[in-house]
């Protein structure tokens, strides 16, 4: 197992670690991780796995992995690609099994014991990573192979693996002095502990900042099913007779579009936007933010980089922060202009509604929805009746995947799951061969962090004879008992988006696990997922899944047309709040060692002002104290990747429409050139090979209605 696999699994935050105990002190005889699962596709056997199995398996797995690495490093034979690089790919199988299960649960279904284990593991896993990447004997072998790479007769994929492996060692500090490496180890352990602590505090804040409502009249504007869901959520917290609204992971909240009571909107918005600053003695993550920024700056200074952004963007398709800033600065004027015009229309609507106060952030989405409704005669609750989760999944997402790629999904009930809400499907290819397994975990719960993501329990590899087992995790509000799961169009789009990640994993067709599926640059990985979103609004797809949950009638054509047209309104706001978060991320990571400020909020405000993104009515999508992508995830200095990838997605979708749209021929070409290749080739080479040239940025502006 190459170390890139570990960092990807642990959200790319330099997790990995040495263990204190010896394997002969651990009884693994009854531990389900001791051997590969006997279930189909080696799916985790959650009937056998319990929390007590994790720590012994991690401890045994890390020691076993280090023993394998020592054998590779100290091999008396001359280094070859097979006895060094390939053997590294084969190593760490036990550790891989346990971490893929554990870290999915740590995000999707955690508890106090799992959080305690995660805190204990973080510094150990960081040390484990360093024990490998700072192993001078092993690096000598890798370096020798790298310097002689042109004479090894390697195929393209093997050469890419060698180059990536060598780069991993160099970027980890393999060429540093002993004293520098000692400090690097200390920094890595501390960073891993802090990112884990940040993630845990985010989950705790979800509960801390939940809004309890005693008077149902405060929820005026919400549909009956949403009110019933809030009542049941309160009952689960032993708040009988009340209503509970959980905050979302973003600054804004989806219910702000519907709540008629302005005081209620303000209360919900403030609960979301003011988290993490220790308000009223609550959780305060600002010290973590400051320490992480300082440690990251120090870490990359040891490696010779000016700042962390330079280090983080170097292996991405963007290459350098200057390229990112040039692209983002080029978008800002049009985005600000669009957002200002939207704000003008919203202010006019407020005044017509009898509100003379200044526009506030808790007003924006509510009155934006009113403007949308007036201009397009469109109401979100009206269309929710046509978006029932299971119908959207099967007749929308699965239907599109079958039309494009010829695959089909068959649900099964014989595979154990980690929560009753989780569903499992076998995925069959067009020739009826089995591609792998797909898990869907769609509903929010207290044990799940916010957002949506894709993970892998097993990654595809011809070397290890593995087929993929992937999981999509979302946070759709669960319906009240007995009610249908009616979802917003944003949820619909998210289902398509995450399926884009899923097929990137499912279609992987590479030799080495480190290059499989989504193991691509950060600013490329969101391209396949964003690309799949646009099929959700293709009329022939919409007509297939948008049916009334009670009558079964297709969505009326005029409502369908209004839905598609209405999507363009408020794109200025959407892009503005995204760019705000992106620039905050960049500014934190453009700081040089010793220049980190003392005040998180003041620094964030200065950063927004610097880029003319300081409109207080449109705050960043994520503020620093709860910016999970940056301070507990793998997107530090990489949050720009979403819009960078969207450039590719918009261009690829426009290209495919020119070639005939939703056809197997188009899907097969895209699968062959992009989805099946993983990280086996340079990402932009793959894209140019598929597209026949570079992407056209105007397709992004068209997609967002900003032209």
CATH architectural group of the largest domain: Orthogonal Bundle
Coarse morphology: globular
- Determine the structural class based on helices, strands and strand pairing: mainly alpha
Number of domains: 4
Our estimate of the beta-strand percent is: 5-15%
Distance between the termini: 46 Å
Q: Summarize the main sheet.
A: 5 strands, mixed
Describe the structure.
The protein is globular and about 80 Å long. It contains 27 helices and 7 strands. It has helices spanning 3-9, 54-73, 81-90, 93-108, 112-133, 136-147, 156-172, 178-208, 224-236, 262-273, 286-302, 308-313, 321-352, 361-376, 380-384, 389-405, 489-506, 522-533, 539-545, 557-566, 571-589, 600-610, 628-631, 641-658, 664-675, 683-691, 698-703, and strands at residues 211-213, 243-245, 408-412, 423-428, 434-443, 453-458, 469-476. The chain is mainly alpha-helical and 707 residues long. α2 (54-73) packs parallel to α5 (112-133), α17 packs across α18 and α18 packs across α24. A hairpin with a 5-residue loop joins β4 (423-428) and β5 (434-443). It folds into 4 domains: 3-203, Neurolysin, domain 3 (Orthogonal Bundle), CATH 1.10.1370; 209-281, no CATH class; 286-376 and 570-639, Neurolysin, domain 3, CATH 1.10.1370; 384-503 and 529-566, Neurolysin, domain 3 (Orthogonal Bundle), CATH 1.10.1370.
